Amino acid sequence: MAWSTSTEASGVVGNLASGTMKSDPSRYTAIDDFILRSANGYNRPEVRELLVKTYGDQGITGFLTLTGATKNAGSSDQVEYFEERRRHKKVTVTGTGATGASGLVTIAMTATDFIQANDIVMNTATGKRFIVNSVNSASTGATLYALNGIITTAPAVNDSYAVIGNLYPQGSDQPTKFIEPGVDRRVNPFAIVKERFEVNGSQATNIGYINIGNGDYRWFMYGEMEARKRFMDKREMTLLFSERVGNTDTISNIPGSEGYFSAVESRGNIYGGSFATMQDIDDIIIELDKQGAPSEYAMYLNRAFDLAIDDLLAFGVATQVTAGLPGQFGAFNNSPDMAIQLGFKSFTRGGYTFHKHSWKLLNDPTLLAGGVYAGAMIPLSFVPDAKTGMLSPALEMNYKAANGYSRELEHWVTGGGVLGYTNNGDAGTDVATFHYRSECNLITRAANQHVVLKTA
């Protein structure tokens, strides 16, 4: 006789088909018919426990570490530092008077406080040399005599003159003026970066299918790790791209902080080439020479510029235009193996060693890929000057700290009993809150020796 299962109780998921008396053994209903009936959900799910890294390692930090940024503790709201100015200056013509047969010309110029009578000045474009007869104000400028011959063409507006020395007659007095060495005082406030993550008590106790590491299947732990890494990424990008506040409409009590790109864009070098030919590298080297740059640089590049330089190097090695792989790896203890392990490719050109590295930050489509920035060139920390041997850190990361308390990377948890945290003052809150905070800034020393690369 036929029979059927009883009506399902409330809350039961799925439904067993009605049973039937069978005379043919091949039609016997076995227990497998019930537990393997996928349409009704009786199969045991086969779930892979590993989380697939769809986009690979998404971390973008490392720029400051690999470029050798030093770390220092600070105990004020801002960091002050001083940078020397150039020892020599040029004066620029702003207006000219009539020329005379005696070789005399009167010009208006900038920086008249930098020259005095008997100085020798040279037109850097024509090579014509003059001796300064007298210096007045910036409006009337100075009167100059040509050292050799009459002046047939008056100095043009915007011509530059370098002070190359001086000439005094016998028995003359000492100069009446002296030049005070100039320094630039720079101030950079600290930036406060914060993040948080929350989990309620129910989710904190749930066990999932995915192994987030070390045999832990609690999904909220993955969320907390992602929040921490996102915080680290934001902190590094703040140090790289933040600016001083200059808008009166900006939120009050936030002074802003000068990031790396802001510093270089205001005081350093910006290159908009494409690395299509070796001349692009040479143009940068020529500018670095003008800035008294050290001989070793890290180049952090987006993928397009990275590949373009690879093409240049391949062409250079084939035609002996470049030195190819270098014999100098000063930043890596002179070990080419160490440079390779850290992901750098190195080459030399014109006495400079460049260690290039692909910059994930500029390749991530959810961040800066396809944007205006193509890379940066950083003089490596503590590179000695070839002549003086002086060591200077290119980048310095500072964080607030005093008496054993550090605000470099703070992390704490509050909760109303969740995960055992009962320190939020509200025992009725069924949430654990993870907090992250950092108070730091970045000092870019000698920004004139750095290069920001922008898309052409």
Class based on secondary structure composition and strand pairing? alpha+beta
Portion in beta strands: 25-35%
Q: What low-confidence regions span 5 or more consecutive residues with pLDDT below 50?
A: 12-18, 317-329
Please give the share of residues in helix: 10-25%
Q: What characterizes the major β-sheet?
A: 6 strands, mixed
Q: Which term fits the overall shape? A: elongated
Query: Averaging pLDDT over every residue, what do you get?
Result: 79
Number of helices: 8
Quick summary:
The protein is 18% helix and 29% strand.
Features:
six-stranded mixed beta sheet; alpha+beta; 3 domains; 456 residues; six-stranded antiparallel beta barrel; 29% strand
Description of the molecule:
The longest helix is centred in the middle third of the chain and has 23 residues, at 219-241. The chain is elongated and about 105 Å long. Strand 16 (395-402) and strand 17 (405-406) form a beta hairpin. Helix content is 18%, strand content 29%. It has eight helices and 20 strands. The chain folds into three domains: 1-46, no CATH class; 55-83 and 186-456; 90-180. It has 456 residues and is of the alpha+beta class.
Write the SSE topology:
Layout: H1 32-35, H2 63-66, E1 70-74, E2 78-84, E3 90-99, E4 104-109, E5 119-123, E6 129-135, E7 142-146, E8 160-166, E9 183-189, E10 191-200, H3 201-205, H4 219-241, H5 260-267, E11 269-271, H6 278-290, E12 296-301, H7 303-319, H8 336-341, E13 345-349, E14 352-358, E15 373-379, E16 395-402, E17 405-406, E18 410-415, E19 431-444, E20 451-454
Parallel strand pairs: 1-16, 11-20, 12-14
Antiparallel strand pairs: 2-9, 3-4, 3-8, 4-7, 5-6, 5-8, 6-7, 10-19, 12-15, 13-14, 15-20, 16-17, 16-19, 18-19
